[in-house]
Structures are given as structure tokens and as C-alpha cells.
Design a protein that fits this description.
71% of the residues lie in helices and 0% in strands. It has one domain: MFS general substrate transporter like domains (Growth Hormone, Chain: A, Up-down Bundle), CATH 1.20.1250. It is an all-alpha fold.
Length: 522
């Protein structure tokens, strides 16, 4: 039986034409868009720092080591926000956690914009980092929980779309304010971040709360109304509510608007024990997949390409600050365009093919970039073909990253986590993501000096190769499955696990549970 037959949108006959995909749910689209705008905060910070650091270094007279720390430390600061966000979102709800993220970043942006010295600037980045940690954790969780199955990949990729949008805004801000006096320009670049954070905090108030959080709190009537607005049909809304109630431990027969839910289930207590101490084979596989996909997304060094693109372009032979900033704007446009392309393929092609293809392109780009930069480093004259190919491979690396590895890490890691583990499990993934990003961004300049910039990218290419193997072995396809049935695809660590058996289409009494159908299997 197909998803469309479950939700009432299919024809139900074996010899009829394949059912058409239901129209995009506009209310779910609006909710996912509003929630995902919080990701602009991280993108803007990454983009703006790549150019602002040129002027901060000149104005504050800081060393390369201080530059690395200033650029990368916000990823480690964000760990605090990510640690807190899991429990906070289970406590006050997904929606108000998004508002909190915007408010914290607002304060951090103001502090950075008025920084008189390096120490004060670091304090501003500490506050902003906490806000970014909250935003990174909660945006994909909310988007996944509000999305209908037919477009979950599309809508859950929005956080990565807005990271890239923020990145582009940051690059444009660099170029726009680069002509101002030295002491004013970089402060405006950083301080202007208050604008998106304020708009986000206000706009999110128009969103409904996540239906899954409402069920966890026993507010079934509210959850039902939200699901009716965010599902492709009334039948799908009913099935989604039944699945969520089952995952939350609420009897199907319970139809009260407000029911008592065990505090352990609704507040997230006992989650860490279930994930790491008393984990079932399926949960252990899921946890490993979440940690692995976030680790390899960052360990391949693409943050170095984005954060230090002016430095890389300088090594490739571009000397003018203006030309370097223009080149970074091209990087921003490339990332933004290709992430938009990716959003339309996630629910058509699937997560696994896009991810493997993306990493294949990244591997080729990184090794080619490493070769070109090595040739330039050892050449006494300007090698124009190597310069041109270096610029092209920088763009191709961010393009292939954006079309797969970038959005899928957030989509996949959020959707495979069971409801009871989702908030804190997603926070754990963000912690790994930001820790590795911090390590990469805080060591790139030192690594480049120790083993040359070409050597650094050879190392990243090797890590990407290991990542491709990990994904091929460990990650099954998830396209078309409801959030509540994901566990059935995990628990087998062999190659056979990529096509793990699904739950039966009917139970022992012949009744149809809302499980994945044969047409949606890998």
C-alpha cells in the first residue's frame, strides 16, 4: 500500500496510473520557513567573519593564532546553547526556544558591534555563540515535526538554505562596508546582525507549536488542530496523530483535549541512558548515524573553505582585498544556488543517493584543489591554469557540499531520531557538528603553515573518502517514511542494513498500521 493510499490521495487500484504527489501544504511551508530563518544567524556570522577578520586584524593588531581563536571559538561557545536547547525545548516548547535563540543572538550582535578591544569582542562572540547553538538545534527539529511526510525532506532542508542565505548576506555586508573607515567598517559588519535576529524573534510568534511537543505535554486537541493544518489530508492528520500518541505512550482510545503524560516522557528525563547505556541495537545504530553524519560534514574542512576563502584566494594568486571579497561573494552565491537545487531533490531522489554523490564530488574537488595549491606553492612563477582551477574547485567544493552533505546532515539526523529522543538527540548532533567545526576553523592557519595549504586539503580529502565509506555502509534510505517508523530501518550494521526490513503493511489482525510501504523502500 502506498503513502497516497494511506492518506487518501491515491487511486487505490493496481492497474491505474501512479498517484500524483499532493500539492505542497502552504501552512507547513510557512511554519518551516519561519522556524528555519533562525539558521540565518550562523550563516551570517560565518560569512561576515571571513571578511571582517581582515580589518579586525589590522585594527586590533592581533596575531594569526588570535585570528583562528576569534573565528572558530563561536562554534565551541555554541555548544552551551546546544546542550541547553534540548532540555529547554522539551520544557518551554519548540516555538519559544526559537524566540530565545533570536533574543540571545541579538544581545551578542550588539556587544560585537560596540567592541572596543579583543577581549570585549570575544565576550560578544560568547553570547552570540549561545544563541547560535539554540538556533542550530531547534530549527531542524521544529521543521521535521511540523512537516507532512510527502515534503519533509524539502522542508527540513530549509535550515541549511537559510545558513547559506545568511552566509551570502555576510559576504555582501563585508563588501558593502569595506570602504568605511577601519574602526567603523568591521563593527558595522558584525553589529548589523541585530536586524535578522530581531525579525526572527518577532516572526516566530506567529507560528503554532510543534504538534509532537503538544502531544508530549498531553495537549491533544491543540496537536490535532495543528496536524489538520500541516497534513496533506484529514486522513494523514489522523494517522500522524495516532503515530505520535503511540510514540508518546498515550493510548489510541484517549481523545481528551488534555491528558496526563508521564513527566519522564514530556521533560526528556532518562534520554541519555536510553541512548548510551541501555540502548537497543536500533537506537545504537541511530545514535552512531547521527554522530557520524555530523562529524564527517565538518571534518572534511568545508568550513575552512568558507571562513578562509580570502586567504585561500590569496594563496591562489589574488592580491587585492576588493577582489578577494568579490570572490567570496561568488562562493556565497554558489552555495545558495545549489542548496536551493538540493531542496527539490531530497524528496524525489532520496537522502542516500544525494549524500553519496555529494561526497564523491567533494572528494574530487578537494584533491584537485590540493594539487593546484601545491603546484602554486612550489612554483616560482604564476601558474595561471592552477590559479583558475583553484578558484573553480573552491566553487565546485561548496556547490557539491550544498547539494547534498550540507542539508542532508540536518534532515537525516533529525528525522531518524525517535520522538522520545529527538530534542536531546538533535542537540547531541549539533554539539558534535559545532565541536568539529570549531576544531577545523581554529587550526586551519596553523595546519597550513605546518604542512602547506595544499597538504591541509589533501588531509581533508582523505577524511572525506573515509566519510563516503561510512555513509555507504551505515546509512539506510529514509525518504517517504513517517518519523514514527524510522526505528524499523536501523539496527543492522552490515551492508544488508541499507535495505533493512520494514514493518509489515498489516498487523496480525489484518489492520493497517501507518508504516512505510514497498514502493518507498530503498
Amino acid at each position: 500500500m502506498t503513502v497516497e493510499q494511506q492518506t487518501g490521495t491515491g487511486t487505490g487500484t493496481a492497474d491505474s496510473h501512479p498517484p500524483k504527489k499532493p500539492p505542497r501544504n502552504k501552512f507547513a511551508l510557512a511554519c518551516a520557513t519561519l522556524a528555519s530563518t533562525t539558521s540565518i544567524l550562523l550563516g551570517y556570522d560565518i560569512g561576515v567573519m571571513s571578511g571582517a577578520i581582515i580589518y579586525i586584524k589590522r585594527d586590533l593588531k592581533i596575531t594569526d593564532v588570535q585570528v583562528e581563536i576569534l573565528v572558530g571559538i563561536i562554534n565551541l561557545y555554541s555548544l552551551i546553547g546546544s546542550f541547553l536547547a534540548g532540555r529547554t525545548s522539551d520544557w518551554i516548547g519548540r516555538r519559544y526556544t526559537i524566540v530565545l535563540a533570536g533574543a540571545i543572538f541579538f544581545v551578542g550582535a550588539i556587544l560585537m558591534g560596540f567592541s572596543p578591544n579583543y577581549a570585549f569582542l570575544m565576550f560578544g562572540r560568547f553570547i552570540a555563540g549561545i544563541g547560535i547553538g539554540y538556533a542550530l538545534m531547534i530549527a531542524p527539529v521544529y521543521a521535521a515535526e511540523v512537516s507532512p511526510t510527502s515534503s519533509r525532506g524539502f522542508l527540513t532542508s530549509f535550515p541549511e538554505v537559510f545558513i547559506n542565505t545568511g552566509l551570502l548576506f555576510g559576504y555582501i555586508s563585508n563588501f558593502a562596508f569595506s570602504k568605511l573607515p577601519l574602526r567603523i567598517g568591521w563593527r558595522l559588519m558584525l553589529g548589523i546582525g541585530v536586524v535578522p535576529s530581531l525579525l526572527i524573534a518577532l516572526g516566530v510568534l506567529a507560528m503554532p507549536e510543534s504538534p509532537r511537543w503538544l502531544v508530549m505535554r498531553g495537549r491533544l486537541g491543540e496537536a490535532r488542530r495543528v496536524l489538520e493544518k500541516t497534513s496533506d489530508s484529514q486522513e494523514e492528520a489522523r494517522l500522524r496523530l495516532a503515530d505520535i500518541k503511540s510514540a508518546a505512550g498515550i493510548p489510541e482510545s484517549c481523545n481528551d483535549d488534555v491528558v496526563h503524560v508521564m513527566s519522564k516522557q514530556s521533560t526528556g528525563k532518562g534520554v541519555w541512558k536510553e541512548m548510551f547505556i541501555h540502548a537497543s541495537p536500533a537506537v545504537r545504530h541511530i545514535v552512531l548515524a547521527v554522530l557520524g553524519i555530523h562529524f564527517f560534514q565538518q571534518a572534511i574542512g568545508l568550513d575552512s573553505v568558507v571562513l578562509y576563502s580570502p586567504t585561500i584566494f590569496g594563496k591562489a594568486g589574488i592580491t587585492s582585498d576588493n577582489q578577494k571579497l568579490l570572490a567570496t561573494v561568488a562562493v556565497g552565491f554558489t552555495k545558495t544556488i545549489f542548496i536551493l537545487v538540493a531542496t527539490f531533490f531530497l524528496d524525489r531522489v532520496g537522502r542516500r543517493p544525494l549524500l553519496l554523490s555529494s561526497f564523491g564530488g567533494i572528494i574530487l574537488s578537494l584533491f584537485t584543489l590540493a594539487t593546484c595549491l601545491t603546484v602554486i606553492h612550489h612554483s616560482h612563477t604564476k601558474v595561471m591554469w592552477a590559479v583558475g582551477l583553484s578558484i573553480a574547485t573552491v566553487l565546485s567544493s561548496v556547490a557539491t557540499f550544498s547539494i547534498g552533505a550540507g542539508p542532508i546532515a540536518w534532515v537525516y539526523s533529525t528525522e531518524i531520531l525517535p520522538l522520545r529522543l529527538r530534542a536531546q538527540g538533535a542537540a547531541m548532533g549539533v554539539v558534535v557538528n559545532r565541536t568539529i567545526s570549531g576544531v577545523i576553523s581554529m587550526t586551519f592557519l596553523s595546519l597550513s603553515k605546518a604542512m602547506t595549504i595544499g597538504g591541509a586539503f589533501f588531509l581533508y580529502g582523505g577524511v572525506a573518502t573515509v566519510g563516503w565509506i561510512f555513509f555507504y555502509i551505515m546509512l539506510p534510505e529514509t525518504r517517504g517514511k513517517t518519523l514514527e517508523e524510522m526505528e524499523g530501518s536501523f539496527g543492522n550494521f552490515t551492508a544488508k542494513g541499507r535495505n533493512a526490513p520494514e514493518a509489515p503493511s498489516t498487523d496480525k489482525d489484518g489492520n493497517k498500521p501507518s508504516q512505510l510501504q514497498d514502493t518507498d523502500r530503498v
